[in-house]
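Today's session is about reading a structure prediction critically. Students often jump straight to the picture, but the first step is always the sequence itself: look for stretches that repeat, for charged clusters, for runs of hydrophobic residues. Only then move on to the predicted structure, which in these notes is written as discrete structure tokens rather than atom positions. Here is the chain we will use throughout the hour.
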Amino acid sequence: MADLEKELRARRERGRKLLIPYLMGGMSDDWGKALEAVIAAGADAVEVGVPFSDPMMDGPVVQEAGLRALERGTTPDEVLDGVARAETPVPVAVMTYYNLIFRAGHKRIARKMASAGVGAAILPDLPIEEIGPWAAEADAAGVATVLLVAPSSPPERVARICDRARGFVYAVARMGVTGERADLGSDAAAVVGRIRDCTDMPVCVGVGVSTPEQAAEVCAVADGVVVGSALVRRLLEGGGPEAAAAFVGSLRRAIDEV
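Below is the predicted structure for this chain, in token form.
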């Protein structure tokens, strides 16, 4: 199991901008091949979604991918087993919602993640005030808990989040659910600045980043970028691992120019 923060810090120290694509686990028969393809195309880590029936942060594209996965009977254990079977030479983080973690049991699911080679978890609906029981088991299992900072987060809350975050700090570019945006606005730079005032952990920007040009834009102020909906849409449209790799390759080339 790769150490997410250690790996990202090492790549950042070499002057590399960090690229973290997101895809939905279990959405198709070949999702594991898509996972391998985006890594080969230049991902520094990958975020894998575990489908949930009430995904409060997901926009229409990721919701559709989650629905497809659920209709195929995908379970959290099956997603983790898929990660374990895939060739993943970079860290893998899973993104899901706390209801699934609570029902599975903190210790059991944290250990299952670790045994599958998952290095981190992102639980966007678990607030910092309630994170203790999960974080204790995750820390014990060696699973980093990545936390998000929103444009609306006040400085004192940003400091608490950064103190508890592991792996990297996820800077939310825009308020609202995930999805492709024509314009990212000015929030991303401000959020990154507030995070940098509190920590030297890697800072990656996501939510709304949709194109190579936007990825380069946020990497001018952040250490890296998370891209989800634009990649998932290509998979929903039937592009398969080849289309996923081509898109991630275009992102890689763009941020390498920053």
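Discussion point for the tutorial: The chain has a mean pLDDT of 94.
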